[in-house]
Amino acid sequence: MVETSYYLVLAAIIFTVGATGVLLRRNALIIFMCIEMMLNSVNLTLIALARQWGNLEGQIFVFMIMAVAAAEVAVGLAILIANVRHRQSINIDEINLLKW
Amino acid sequence: MSWSLIFFLLVGAVSLAAALGVVTSRQPVHSALFLLTNFATLAVLYITLDAQFLAAAQVIVYAGGIVILILFVIMLIGGDTNDFSAAQRAWSRTVGIALGIILLLVISYSALSRMMGPSEDSAALLQGGTPEAVGIELFTKYILPFELVALLLLVALIGALVLGRQQEGASEGIPSVKANE
Asked: Which residues are listed as membrane-spanning (chain A) (predicted)?
C-alpha cells in the first residue's frame, strides 16, 4: 500500500501548479480551469485522509465539493459569457470596473 | 519498490504533467484537454484509495460535465488570446513562480509528517468506498446536507439561466473575442 503522505505531496504539487496558473495567466477561462484543478487536488487530499483514518466522512465531503464545483462552473461560465457580451474580452486585466 | 508504488508514481507523473499542460498551453482547447487528462488520472488514484463511487462520480461529473461545459464555452467565445504577454508587468511571471514555490514548500512541510498507509481495520471500515457504503452514509447521517446540495444546484441552474439570458433588444449572439487584445 502506498503511503498516505505520497498522495498528500502529489495533491500539494497539483494545488501549487493551479495556484501559480491563477497568478500567471490572464485568460479568465484558463484561470477557471486552474481553480477546478485546485479543487480536485483538495479532493484527493480528503480521499487519501479518509483512507488513512478509515472514515467515510471524507468521501461524503468530496461528494459535496463536487456538487458545489458543478454549481460554481455553471454560474462562473455564465458570468464569463455575460462579460464577453458586454466587453468583448476575457482578459481579466480588462475586467476592472470594481478597481479603484 | 512494490508494484502499487510504481503504479502510483506513473499515474501521478501523468497527472502532474497534465496539470502543467493546463497552465502552459497557449490554446484554451489544449488546456481543457489537459484538464480532462488530469481528472481521469485522479479518478484512477481514487480507485487505489478505496473510493470506487467517487471515482465514477469524478468521471461523470468532472470529465463528462464540467470539461464539456468549458469546451462549449471555448467554442462559443473562441478565446484563443495569447495572454502570455502581460507586457505591462514583466515581473509578474517571476513573482508568480516565486510565490508558487513558497506555497509548495509550506504545504509540503506541513504534509510531510510521514503518514504510513492505513491499518487493516481502518481499511475494512471503508468497504472499498462502494456506492452502497457511501449511499448508506449519505442517506442516513448526511441527508440534510444532501438535500441542501439539491437546492444549491437548483439555485445555480436558475442563476446561470438569468445571467446567460439574451438581453431584450440586444442584437446578434455572442461576439467572439479578438486575438491579442
From this structure: 6-24, 29-48, 60-82
- Give a yes or no: residue A38 inside a domain: yes
Contact A78 B65 (CB under 8 A): no
Which residues in chain A (36-75) have CB-CB distances under 8 A to chain B? Answer: 36-37, 40, 43-44, 47-48, 50-57, 59-60, 62-64, 66-75
Bridge partners, residue A91, by sequence? A27
Average pLDDT over all residues of chain A? 88
pLDDT digits (tens, 9 = 90+) for B31-79: 999 999 999 999 999 999 888 899 999 999 998 889 999 999 888 887 5
Q: Which domain holds residue A60?
A: 4-91
Query: In whole angstroms, how far apart are CA B3 and each of A1, A92, B7?
Result: 9, 45, 6
Tell me the torsion sign for CA atoms B95, A26, B178, B27.
positive
Q: Is B154 on the interface with A (CB under 8 A)?
A: no
Q: How many domains does chain A have?
A: 1
| Distance between B91 CA and the closest CA of chain A, angstroms | 10
Higher per-residue confidence, B55 vs A90? B55
Name the band, by pLDDT with cuts 50, 70 and 90, for residue B181.
Answer: very low
- Say if A31 falls within a structural domain: yes
B127 in the Ramachandran plot: left (φ > 0), alpha (ψ -120 to 50) or beta? left
ipTM of the complex: 0.92
Residue A98: inside a domain, yes or no?
A: no
Interface check for B86 against chain A (CB to CB < 8 A): the answer is: yes
- The CA distance from A97 to the nearest CA of chain B, in Å, is 17
Please report, as a single letter, which amino acid is at residue B70: I
Distance to chain A for B172, nearest Cα, Å? 10
CATH assignment of the domain containing A13: 1.10.287.3510
